[in-house]
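ok so heres the complex, two chains, lmk if somethin looks off
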Amino acid sequence: MLELIFSDYTFRIVALGTILLGIASGLLSSFVTLNKQALVGDALSHAALPGIVLVFMIIKVKNLELLLLGALFFGLIAIGLTNIIKKYSKVKFDSSLALVLSSFFGFGLVLMTIIQKTPTASQAGLNNFIFGQASTMLPHDVYLMLSISILVILLIILFWKELKIFVFNPEFSQALGFNNKYISLLFSGLIVLTVIIGLESVGVILISSLLVSPGVSARQWTNRLSIMVVLSGLFGAISGFFGTIISAISPKMPTGAIIVIVLSVITILSILFGSKRGIIWRQIKNKINNHKIIAYQWLNNSEINSLPIEALQFLTKKNYLAIQNNEYVLTNEGRKLIDYYKEAQE
Amino acid sequence: MNDKPYAIEIEDLTVAYDIKPVLWDIDIKIPKGVLMAVVGPNGAGKSTLIKAMLGIVKPISGKVLFFNTPLKEYLKKISYVPQKGSVDWDFPTNVLDVVLMGRYGKLGWFKRPTEEDVRIAKEAIKKVGMEDFMDRQISELSGGQQQRVFLARALVQEAEIYLLDEPFQGVDAKTEKEIVNILKELVKAGKTVIVVHHDLQTVKQYFDWVGLIFTRIIAYGPVEDVFTEANIEKTYKSRHNLTLKEPFKC
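and the predicted structre for the whole thing:
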């Protein structure tokens, strides 16, 4: 079965498409999560649904470009609405996002139910836009997803430094002479593009997780932005690949759901075992640090040879002390430890 | 002497957030080569003044000139140290990388820092005494170290005018002295340095110029002329009045 899939040209193209979509949204998710905008993609994608259905009601055929234009139009209206609510009312930003998201999505579902009664709609596979289905995508649609993904990836590489400083310290970036309006527009544009091209393969409900999970997972493994972004791109790619392969093996399986499950597994593992911030590693590090502090206090506060025997044994075991001519003496490790904490206290 | 342009010339500057006026009709002329403190009570508009000068906050009216040049053409020659709280110190980056950001303005769009930029950044890090912390995660820095890093980032901008927003916030006495010394060195080299400052006690010791503001500019000029009991009282009085006006408060 697998061989059949790998030798199939259409499947290879679809897999390549979802992998590139995964990379693009994964790269972007690092910036999105660092900029605390995890919910924006969510609002955008949910709000896109009525746009897709309305356009279909008008043109009555499945023309992906036009459907996505409708999605784009409604997504932008939704984002505009949340900004207006934020600016002119006292409603908090997260609440306004949730309000807009759910009302647009509800409207989209109502429209969807109305057109389900017409035979063309189910043929066109509009349902796929809700949960996502990559394996039945037309080659033409896949090429669109593929080329825009590549565009997004290239733009992120090109504007790397600008995006970094915009997310880290926007005031400073403005003071350096970069117009934050342009960077912000670019950033939003990248989010919008990624969400829109992922609508058919991943679906309006779950596409936003591709803009959050890879970034959150990657952050657990590194303290460097460049590595974080590469990792999040990799996580996105892995989930895109598995999403497509599994939904191709069992055709009823929605791609978006598989992608999110794969991503969730990666996220859970990262939060637990991540080498920089993972819960378990931090516990181990804390324990080691506590031992070091106790060792430092012993070494610093008293004459070495007057320490209690348990302390001496502990310090020798940890290699801070060594026995020379029947006396305990400080090792290089021990001296380093003392210097380190003395400096830290200054 | 008189035809020498001022380093900074602010005319009729007014800024408001929504309907609340923050700065009202500010006029200041600052000569080149001064080390100037901007003092005033909380919410007096000190930070806003700096931000308006840099175009981060858009004023309702007024103009700012640097050596007779509008901001847009002069921006690349201005260094900025924002308040420490303006960044997320949990951001995944290290000391060298943050200081390198100071070079971004000179690089412009798209271009990546060169080896020369890295060299300049490392030099600035040495200058602020952080050479042992080049690769240190910024989340692991103390308050004083964070300010040193910000100062180094401003130094690599290689500017003529330095605008610092509370560079002594959360800083130990030793770091404060060292920062002041670096600022004094800059002034000696002919740079103009403006510092939003909180501690009235140290104004005379650190600065040669001072501006007292409370929404309006109360007074500005050389410290010995302007930093008087009367002016200080006037600057901080507006708040006293507020509390005194409430009846039966005693």
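quick notes: Chain A touches chain B through 25 residues (CB under 8 Å). thats all i got rn
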